[in-house]
Amino acid sequence: MLVYWQACFMLPKRVYKELNSMFRRFLWAGIDLTPKHSTIGWETVCGPYKEGGLAVRHLECTNKAANLRHIWEIISDKDTLWVSWVKKNLIKHKDFWSMNTPNEASWSWRKILEMRPLARKLSLHLVGNGYNIKFWTDHWHPLGVLEDRFPVCLQYDSILHKNASVDSCISSGAWRIPIHLVNNIPEIAYRVHEVEIDSSSDDHIVWMPSADGSFNLKDTYEYIQPVKSEVAWTSLVKYQLSIPRHSFITWVALHRGLKTKYKLFLWGVEIDPTCPLCQISAEDDYHLIFGCPYSEQVWMPLLRKIGHLRLNFFHWDFEIQWCIKHFQGNDSSANIKKLVFNAYVYHIWHERNNRVFNNGCTNPKGLVWKIVRDVNLKLAAHDLKFVDTDRNRSMASNWNCNPTFTLPKCIFCPWERPEADKVMVNTDGSLKTDIAGYGAIVRDRPGNVLAAVTGSSNPRSITLHEFQGVEAGLLLAASRGLRRISVRSDSMVVVSILNSSITPPWHTRAVYHRIKMLVSRFDHCDFRHVFRETNRAADHLASLYPTAEYHEVLPSSFAEDMKKIVFEDSVGKMYRRSIV
Questions:
Q1: Which tens digits make up the pLDDT trace of 92-138?
Q2: Can you tell me which residues the record assigns to a coiled coil (predicted)?
Q3: Is the separation of the CB atoms in 323 and 239 below 8 Å?
Q4: How far apart, in whole angstroms, are the C-alpha atoms of residue 239 and residue 230?
Q5: DSSP state of 141
Q6: 380 vs 401: CA distance, rounded Å
Q7: pLDDT number for residue 2
Q8: Is the pLDDT of residue 157 over 70?
Q9: Contact call for residues 428 and 529 (beta carbons, < 8 A)
Q10: Exposed/middle/buried for residue 161 (C-beta within 10 Å: 0-12, 13-18, 19+)
Q11: Which fold, 423-579?
Q12: Domain residue extents for the chain
């Protein structure tokens, strides 16, 4: 019911406030909804796991994302009764983006119009012929909506009038920028070449948060949700075999949200801040979990039981970083270690509460027994699989579990040679934080290099750069007059798209259409996936990152490491690949 109303119209802020209050009370107090002071902000709770949150839906962001759908349906001319009614009765002959909000507008229509600036940023016009895209008022340029960035006087000096379309700057499928625009607003002319012209299709609009360009609530929500810095400890509390109550207490502890005595003392509560476990130091988060002598007598035996022999008990920051480093992975062994860590934090806190509120007392050995019991019960409910190693057998023995042991599997595979009447084109793409590249190499059946190319690109997505590698390989083969080719890529996504009717991601459509046009120039062209181990030559070329966008490399100029790769491929070297 809540989702339905959120998708209908923007809810008043007081509704968010009341609902968030109810959700917050439920999280911290349970079904009785007793008001309690929370030590972790609701914005943090609503954050994604990677940012230290619990991925609880942020109501205002969800409501906003759901209502952006209405704008998308209007600007994409969706064939619905509501869109037809809105255009006839509310928009009429006005421009949706620039029309004023009528004084008599309803609440829902007023809120839709208020969200236009956000929707404008999230929608993008892809340039085909340019006839239906307004140069100044539509979002098509890397700088955004141009009328928002440049004053009217500069627009006038550019000789492109307010209602000019993008086709004014296109000639024969290429950019031809008027000299007045170059002289008066060089920023536009300089970056316009980042916009690809897809002359094989008409202009169309896409929703940028979604990969396929159509509106998607999940993608839109994630796009507009406030972004915070990521935390390193997410995998410690978010893993396959987690016990929810254990992980929750650990999550609170990692945020320093446990209501320890010392924290209450600082808040003005009249209380003895001494730690109830050791009766020595003040009880704060750092001391209680990784600083108390009692906790040390619990933690060290547990470490030995999971195969880590250590002599010293360190402070909070060191121990957390140590756990992050040594408990990595998603295999059964790593899951057991994370189970133990979370059970340890939970039971230390439980023992503390038992002593404070019930006057109970459990010695360290007894608490270790409780932790081991909880972990064993959890493991007994799952079918575990371990790679058969001495360390893993020792782990299974220590925890009395009966897993299935498997041997590491691997296969050996050579570079795939083309058929006798074809040539092989291996392609690849590469992506780093600040640079991207692609490469392709053409070889005959014996493995002789016929041509090679490398190139650089602005970093975008690995799928785009893999496509660029395929395009470069096809251009290279076509330039050599080759008619029958086999193309191999280690990107399963790219091969699947090229071999089926799957819609490519919107930002790759221009290069995708160019690839399809290039394919039609060959008598035969097939695409197949290969393992990365057998695609080393293309991988090497993709990682060169030359200054040029497209740079052919002569085989005689190959570096020694590239010559070695080509030679090993040609002699049929078998490359080892591990199988999970």
A1: 989 899 899 999 999 999 999 999 999 999 999 999 989 999 998 89
A2: none
A3: no
A4: 17
A5: B
A6: 7
A7: 59
A8: no
A9: no
A10: exposed
A11: Nucleotidyltransferase; domain 5 (3.30.420)
A12: 2-118, 128-202, 234-406, 423-579
